[in-house]
Amino acid sequence: MMTEDQLSRTFAALADPTRRAILSRLTTGAATVGELAAPFAMTFAAVSKHLRVLEHAGLVSRGRDAQYRPATLNARPLAAASRWIGDYARFWTDSVGALDDYLNALQQLGDQPPSDASGHESYEKETPHD
């Protein structure tokens, strides 16, 4: 059996827009299942399932204070995911830079006067109009 790595669990948890919204809400502080469920048209049980996925990914921890079990954000796995994505920033910057250079070269070629079949520039002589 293959074990999931932390990064895979993080990205799997982030794949769902409801879970991303829950994480966003938790940036303002701890919240109960009821508070997290309020903006959604779903049951507390459905929100609890989303919280379990977030807990499994290490993105959320749940406290125990009698019946009050607030969920809190743990951003450490998000930082690891951000670093992983950031590793590709140089690749994209280089790729976009190369594309920009190529497009600029094409544009400069388009600004050149046309050449005849021999490769020499051809210019039409202007003739005075009567």
From TrEMBL:
InterPro entries (UniProt xref): ArsR-like_HTH, HTH_ArsR_DNA-bd_dom, WH-like_DNA-bd_sf, WH_DNA-bd_sf
Compositionally skewed regions (Basic and acidic residues) per UniProt: 118-130
Pfam families in alphabetical order: HTH_20
Superkingdom of source: Bacteria
Domain HTH arsR-type: 1-93
Gene3D superfamilies found in the cross-reference section: Winged helix-like DNA-binding domain superfamily/Winged helix DNA-binding domain
Annotated region (Disordered), positions in chain: 107-130
SMART domains registered for this protein in UniProt: HTH_ARSR
The protein, known as: ArsR/SmtB family transcription factor
Organism from which the protein derives: Microbacterium terregens
